[in-house]
């Protein structure tokens, strides 16, 4: 059986034109882990995610998935290997129904049988009963929280080996944020490896195995989620506690 990290970034540098967004970051995600990447606006969190999914080009450094370099692979080739991203801002298809949105998540995945497809849909509906109730409703008419659930459900239809979540709590009400984080923890507990980008330090770190702090394109701290939550500098910067 394969050992070592599922995902490994080594000295990854990413530019936008002449602007250097990432200054050589290294991080790892082990099989089964829930890992949070925390940072302020503009720290480079989305750029890191885009680097992993292949939407942003790596200037130097290496990104490895299950021990193999994927640094030069096109985004769709990374999807085929099981790296599935839920982008910031959700990006569901507003003019399609809930069920049609979920079907879009199967893109690139070969379901052997109708039964297999139905099983995947049932699993998503079991996790998100809200989506089952609204399967015929248009995505665009759902609340922000429901759209986030739909975006996550759609990603799960692809059976990710690594699920990338970019700010899943963004723009949601506190009650809904609690729900989303508890569902994320459940998805992880049921076996999906997750790397999540967040600004909500308390919720994200308290549920994560480990976390990394990103500041202006560099990782400045890392450790178990609960240790980071107890760290004075982290508390001051991200929890507003002096
Ligand atoms: P946010 O929480 O606001 O999304 P972030 O931590 O995800 O912030 P990034 O979006 O990764 O940060 O941005 C990192 C840096 O790269 C910032 O300085 C940003 O201005 C810059 N940047 C991001 N996208 C582009 C782009 N398309 N062109 C030029 N610069 C960019």
Automatic annotation (TrEMBL):
One of its GO terms (biological process) is L-amino acid transport. The keyword Zinc does not apply. InterPro entries: AAA+_ATPase, ABC_branched_ATPase_LivF/BraG, ABC_transporter-like_ATP-bd, ABC_transporter-like_CS, BCAA_Transport_ATP-bd_LivF, P-loop_NTPase. One of its GO terms (molecular function) is ATP hydrolysis activity. Residues 7-241 form the ABC transporter domain. It comes from the Bacteria. PROSITE patterns: ABC_TRANSPORTER_1 (PS00211), ABC_TRANSPORTER_2 (PS50893). It holds the Pfam family ABC_tran. Keywords: Amino-acid transport, ATP-binding, Nucleotide-binding, Transport. Belongs to the ABC transporter superfamily. This is ABC transporter ATP-binding protein. It comes from Gordonia desulfuricans. The lineage of its organism: Bacteria, Bacillati, Actinomycetota, Actinomycetes, Mycobacteriales.
């Amino acid at each position: 059986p394969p050992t070592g990290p599922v995902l490994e970034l080594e000295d990854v540098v990413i530019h936008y034109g002449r602007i250097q967004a990432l200054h050589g970051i290294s991080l790892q995600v082990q099989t089964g882990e829930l890992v949070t990447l925390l940072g302020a606006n503009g720290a480079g969190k989305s750029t890191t995610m885009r680097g992993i999914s292949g939407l942003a080009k790596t200037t130097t450094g290496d990104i490895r998935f299950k021990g193999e370099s994927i640094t030069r692979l096109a985004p769709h080739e990374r999807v085929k290997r099981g790296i599935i991203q839920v982008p910031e801002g959700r990006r569901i298809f507003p003019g399609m129904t809930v069920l049609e949105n979920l079907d879009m998540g199967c893109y690139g995945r070969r379901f052997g049988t109708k039964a297999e497809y139905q099983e995947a849909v049932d699993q998503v509906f079991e996790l998100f009963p809200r989506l089952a109730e609204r399967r015929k409703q248009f995505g665009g008419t759902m609340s922000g929280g429901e759209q986030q659930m739909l975006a996550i459900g759609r990603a799960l239809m692809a059976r990710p080996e690594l699920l990338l979540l970019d700010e899943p709590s963004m723009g949601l009400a506190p009650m809904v944020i609690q729900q989303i984080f508890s569902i994320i923890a459940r998805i992880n507990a049921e076996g999906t490896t997750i790397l999540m980008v967040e600004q909500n330090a308390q919720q994200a770190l308290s549920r994560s195995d480990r976390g990394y702090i990103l500041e202006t394109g560099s990782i400045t701290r890392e450790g178990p989620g609960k240790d980071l939550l107890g760290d004075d500098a982290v508390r001051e910067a991200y929890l507003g506690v002096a």
